[in-house]
UniProtKB/TrEMBL annotation:
It comes from the Eukaryota. GO terms for biological process: lipid metabolic process. Belongs to the AIM6 family. This is Altered inheritance of mitochondria protein 6. Keywords: Membrane, Transmembrane, Transmembrane helix. The keyword Transmembrane helix applies. Coiled coil: none annotated. One of its GO terms (molecular function) is phosphoric diester hydrolase activity. The chain crosses the membrane at residues 12-37.
Amino acid sequence: MAEITLNWRRFMIVFGVLCCMGIIARIIYISLVAVLINRLSPRTPRNGLQDIVKSWKEPDGSDAYRFPWPEDFSRDIVPEACHSHNDYWRKVPLYEALAAGCVSIEADIWLEGNDLLVGHVKKVLKSSRTLRTLYIDPIVNILSNRNVSNTSEPIKEVGIFETDPNAAVILMLDFKTDGHDLWPVVLSQLEPLRQKGWLTYFNGIDIVPGPITVVGTGNTPFDLVVANSTYRYLFFDAPLLDISNSSYTVQNSYYASTALKPAIGRIWLRGLSRGQVNAMKIQIKAAGAKGLKSRYWDTPAWPISLRDKAWNTLVENGVGMLNIDDLISATRWNWDRCVVAGLTLCGA
């Protein structure tokens, strides 16, 4: 009996010591992770764009959000070759993408009456969320306050970003309703930008770059894009898988896009295979040879490790524009440090 009691006491002591060591190890682990998160987490830049994002309000009636112009509007923001996919879904359309440094922004547009409403599906459209209130008027306000010069001036400051004044911003318009019905309304709404000379255009011989390049996708009618052979300022999103088609040139198109799966097949957890990477290289090279920017949409979003592998592979192989949903992870995180100590630190 005494021996059983002694063994029980020994067991309890060992158990207690192990429990204490486990608790200490857990505390150390949590502390180390907390330190890593603090050290690795990207710092939020302080500039005028961040202030606008914090204070932004939904358009009221027919008016876009207005703000006092901050002199440090885009201070320290480095433009990145990323496309803000479904930008209108963000808490703050346009400004959030610009604050992250993304140079390409997407808006789905629907013709309702005489106006262009912005949204992913028809049932969520609001009369106050229009192409003008969310995008056109804010862009006009930004470029006016930036004192951007006309594109025809030989020596000029062009663009939104102070760190790279010549970085154009691409406004991609996804035509959701009939393209031929949308076309004249879209051109009418782009008129304030065109009149100021802020739109990239084709003059019949050359592309004249401006601070804003407008690209049509979805139901955009290619026949109307190419109808004017001497002056056009709305360019096409060409199909990447048909890029050998001689119809698509740098004079009428800007992007060459496709969903990733039809282009190279399903991506498994291990990442892209050698064959998939080779297929991607050929497609990207073919678009680049025509002067077009390749773009793959519907890339993996989860798990984060797979998403980051796909991002890395696309960028390493020279993709023209990285299509993204998570702005912060794409532009401010080091993708190789998103998973630390078994924890995913970045990504929605």
